[in-house]
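Reading is simple: each integer encodes one residue's backbone shape. The lines below illustrate:
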Amino acid sequence: MENINELKELIRLISKLPGLGKRSAQRLILKLINNRDELMKPLVNNLAQVYKNVSRCRKCGNLKSNSTGCNNCQIIDRKLKKICVVEQISDQVAVTNSNVATDCYFHVLGGTLSSFNKERKEDLLIASLVERVKKDQIEEVIVATSSTVEGQTTAYYIQEELKNLNVKVSKLGQGISVGSSVEDLEDGSLLAAFKNRTIIENKSD
């Protein structure tokens, strides 16, 4: 397979996907090649459509479709008073599936501060978070970033950006261990983390 340049490049790209190494990529590609019409062709077409029509919402960070819009932004009519801030879309999926934050809007940062260089810092949607807090009259921001150094640095930065607003800022409590990411937590751990969240910034007077 590695003698064919097209396949060699495809193996390299697929190997970058989570949970897939070189051997897994090779098996996957062989499966596609052996099922060109049933799997490969529709997969290629669907990937092209996703690339064309699905992008990141610049307001909340979730994925949005050009045809249906952003699900996060479409529930604004519920008039919720909390925003749960997570690093990645996979974190939102984990929290949503656990049903521990049904009374919250979501805001997906897209990473952490230290994972971006200065030229890309604007990709972290902290400015739009501040705007949402102001516009939607949010009463509590739940910072559900990971317990890594990067996650906690980002949480502190969010706290500083919100300190002059009339909003309570809280962080996840017991249930999330040092170094853990939100998407890796079991439902029970997520529930404990949300129930035991602590206030890190009181409302301003």
Remarks:
- The mean pLDDT is 84.
- The radius of gyration is 20 Å.
- Residues 170 and 198 are 5 Å apart (CA to CA).
- Residues 76-201 form a domain with the Dna Topoisomerase Vi A Subunit; Chain: A, domain 2 fold (CATH 3.40.1360.10).
